[in-house]
Input
Amino acid sequence: MITGSLVALVTPMHPNGDIHWEDLDKLVDFHLENGTDGIVAVGTTGESATLDQKEHCRVIGHIIKRVNGRIPVIAGTGGNSTREAIELTTEAYKLGADACLLVVPYYNKPTQEGLYQHFKTIAEAVPGISQMLYNVPGRTACDMLNETVLRLADIPNIVAIKDATGNIPRGAELIAALDGRLAVYSGDDATAAELILAGGQGNVSVTANVAPKAMSELCAAAIAGNREETERLNELLMPLNRKLFLEANPIPVKWSLQRMGMIGEGIRLPLTPFSEKFHAELEEAMKASGVL
Output
């Protein structure tokens, strides 16, 4: 079982929007050197919505090759088309990903039965790879209820869920009801510490892009049940947890990495560069959290 800090890695780009492969290598090495426990490739933070299918698979393969088995790589292969999600998941399996992250379908707003059938169909179509569900209703406009997750927990290769609801009572209730059948990970940096202390296995993190060591240490402390150390690290990172969402993710985190000299300024439309009016506010948060 993968535990700890799983970075939702950005996809660095040149100013014209082409993928910057050298900067991608630099980011992977940065995480290997700073204790990140796993890399999520081409999730929401990796701009999956604007990469075509060929680019999507090429980025996943590039990261797997660079990591070279040193930490797990989880490939973002979800979509609002079940057929497309199967194609991406199949390719990630062939490329050697350790697991796949499958977001709740967005825009088309399926029913709970539709969600169950969607994830069941993908799992059965690609049985050789472990699959992590991803519920983020704030972005998908569709909320997968705990009852549906409990049904999906009976499928052997569905092994985990990333819960980005930010609702700790609901998350704790899910952890208790699952009774170990699925691993539960936070997908919300601001509430991750509490969810892990309640029995979660880690955090799929945006903040880890810029503060990998501190986030890894926070997750380890919380998994160990060390509330005092968890709260200390959570307080340190909270300015980043909040300010990295001043505009839609990954706009602020890409600017932060650019400010740190890790990547260039590329981002793809319809996302735009981080608004100058927020620069000082985010820079102050970066300094408060010790990354500048």
The longest helix spans residues 227-243. The chain has a mean pLDDT of 98. The first strand starts at residue 4 and ends at 8.
